[in-house]
Amino acid sequence: MTDIASVWSELGGDPALLARVTTVERPGALPARLPVRQAARACVGACALAAAELGARRAGLAEVPAVRVDDGAVAAAFTSERHLLVGGRAPVAFAPLSRFWRAADGWVRTHANYPHHRARLLAALGVPDAPDAVAAALAERPAREAEEAVYAAGGLAVALRTPEQWAAHEQGVAVREHPLVERGRLDLARARVLPRVGRDPLLPAAGLRVLDLTRVLAGPVATRTLALLGADVLRVDAPWLPELADQHADTGFGKRSARLDLGTGRGTFEELLAAADVVVTGYRPGALDRFGLAPEALAERRPGVVVAQLSAWGARGPWAGRRGFDSLVQVATGIAAVEGSARRPGALPAQALDHGSGYLLAAGVLRALAEQADEGGSRWVRVALARTAGWLLEGAPRTGGRSDGASGDGAPAVPAGAWLAERDSPLGALRYALPPVSFAGGPADWVRPPGPWGTDPARWE
Fold it and tell me: Which candidate, 305, 307, 295, 308, places its Cα nearest to that of 357?
């Protein structure tokens, strides 16, 4: 079920604390056939409750602060990249070659926002950088043949499947065998001693250091949330991997951003790890293991660490090592088929797999920190976009809405204005969505605005 109670149970939370949660339901928010509004509310609500629980422990409160989840705030946050203005300019969400294409026997969706992915797509198809040329090449190929050819070249393309076809796919089976939020213990490290924090505002993650090795959206949403809650978050990227400036602006609130080559800068990384409380990774499973970043290796060098991992397709199965993005996971798992029509595939009203998975991962980290205070042990937490997609599909019955902006019961759209704010930043004047994680006494906004990507020193403050 796509409700707060089911997610809280997945996180191992005390069911008695659910009484501390109230919701403001707005039926026009995030209209879709699938229960997107309910799922988004559940992810944010569980994250807020985990934050309130940890905050109560650290501030010595007799009662967990009341949590309030407003569908309007959640919807604005889940579409934050659409509300962002940088110096009055709206960002471009998708590049011209990131879209649906007709194949010989169905549909294919490609992702080519990054220059290297665009180059690999064009190389796989043997065409110049022109939408008409890509369309002609894909129209001649069966969808799944195109999927495999582009993947073999290091590009990103996924054939449209129905939910039933994905359920029978080997990767769909592998993902479904695991919980929505996987959690585990790595060793017998002693119980974490969390120092007391103040109450105005109540910052559950104050004083904790988070090493952020994530990219794109879901992972950065998780670490942006931990930054809201008081953590010192340092995002570290490889110097040669390009980043989209607007994407970084949207997810960079509360953080610092540095560039570091993990091969030549190993000593610097080990210094960062030695003082880190949480390490969050958002690369393909196993991609960082050669740098000693597998959970077991991290815990061996930094006992008591919490390792949080985010991937597109999950840690097991034939697609575990594939790159993926929210839009592609929607297509592979059948969401695009459900949200579309007989004429064309559709899409969710937000990149809900990314945002939802981000809040789930942050919630898992917060719960791991709370459990460590009682039981000790280094911990790992794992979330996959494909598993979040499966959970959303399992949340049917579907509402009967359409992906053209009408909700299931015909309720009017919910304007986002009440949940937007403006501020100056090193990037210029910003308009942005406020955080949806809300509990009594907690922070209402990030302390630090985003700065230019990769310009901070690779050290803790």
Answer: 308
pLDDT reported for residue 401:
40
How far apart are the C-alpha atoms of 323 and 312, rounded to whole Å?
7
pTM above 0.90, yes or no: yes
Gap between the Cα atoms of 330 and 338, Å rounded: 10
Q: Is there a contact between 62 and 431 (Cβ–Cβ < 8 Å)?
A: no
Residue 409 is predicted with a pLDDT of 56
Task: Read off φ and ψ for residue 412, nearest 5 degrees.
Answer: -70, 155
- Which residues are the active-site residues? 354
Element (H, E) at 386: helix 385-394
Amino acid at 86: V
- Listed as ranges, residues in the chain with pLDDT below 70 are 1, 396-410
Q: How much is the pLDDT for 6?
A: 96
CA distance 319 to 316: 8
pLDDT reported for residue 258: 97
What span, in angstroms and rounded, lies between the C-alpha atoms of 223 and 211? 9
DSSP string, 79-143: THHHH-EETTBPPP-S-TTSSEEEETTEEEEE---SHHHHHHHHHHHT--S-HHHHHHHHHTS-H
